[in-house]
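User: Could you go from structure to sequence for me? I need the amino acid at each position, not a summary. Structure tokens:
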């Protein structure tokens, strides 16, 4: 539980810095899709960490009197659901961010190789046609 509080203390300033788009625009920095996704990912991490902290806190109350403290048990389970759902959303954003189509991405290289192959294939065809004409 202490680790959750420490992590939240680290995440909040980083998220604040990453998501301060107005200051970055004033500095002339262009905000890209990757910047927005990175910001969303850190916001979701903050929500996830908070939900897991609340779940752990409610669970500690539940452990004291499991059969008597039904509301605390409910709160622990709800916080766990929120945390898990947020984790799924954060993972989805992170996967999209990691797999974004960069300039150096494989799809661009594949297209370049296809164009090279078509050119070399055309050169081969022209060479074989010209050599056939010479022989014939």
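Assistant: Here is the amino acid at each position, in order:
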């Amino acid at each position: 539980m202490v680790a959750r509080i420490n992590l939240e203390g680290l995440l909040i300033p980083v998220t604040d810095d990453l998501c301060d788009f107005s200051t970055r625009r004033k500095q002339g920095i262009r905000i890209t899709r990757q910047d927005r996704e990175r910001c969303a990912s850190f916001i979701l991490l903050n929500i996830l960490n908070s939900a897991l902290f609340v779940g752990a806190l409610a669970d500690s109350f539940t452990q004291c009197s499991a059969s008597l403290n039904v509301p605390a048990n409910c709160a622990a389970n709800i916080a766990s659901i929120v945390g898990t759902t947020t984790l799924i959303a954060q993972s989805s954003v992170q996967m999209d961010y990691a797999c974004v189509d960069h300039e150096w991405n494989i799809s661009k290289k594949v297209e370049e190789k296809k164009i090279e192959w078509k050119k070399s294939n055309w050169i081969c065809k022209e060479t074989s046609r010209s050599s056939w004409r010479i022989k014939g």
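One structural detail worth keeping in mind: The radius of gyration is 28 Å.
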